[in-house]
Amino acid sequence: MLLAMRESKSVRRTVLEKLKVNTLPQNFAQAMRLAADLYEQNEQLAIQRDHAIATKAQISDAKTAKAMNTASQAVKRANKLQAELGRCVENATIIAVKNLTGTEYAWQPLRKWCKAQGVKAVEVVDARFGLVKSWPSAAWSAVYSVTLEDLFAA
Fold first, then answer.
1. Of 48, 84, 125, 135, whose CB has the highest number of CB atoms within 10 Å?
2. How many domains does the chain have?
């Protein structure tokens, strides 16, 4: 062993000191003290391990919560944009409903229903016509029996 430690005197000295410190117990009392010390070290390591696992779970939960929040915000933004374009379950343009159903609809009956009910149609931006009316779901249902929730629910 000393031949293997020929690197330097300080290496030999350090290894010999470690060997002297870690000697086996010579009597029953020393063995019991060593066993108690090892048990306490094991308990401390178990506590540290459990803390590390709990911390990792909290970090994972935080990442999951952040990802879910980000996805929720994206869905809300998408729904808001759909509403601004007149393609949502609350209101829809004639063009949006026509694109989904393949049926032509006149705007006049929708306008007449809205005036009779005291409901105002929302104006939305359209690429072809500039501003167009987006008619409420109740008007679509009453006039044409079209349920916007069935058409636009994702």
1. 135
2. 2
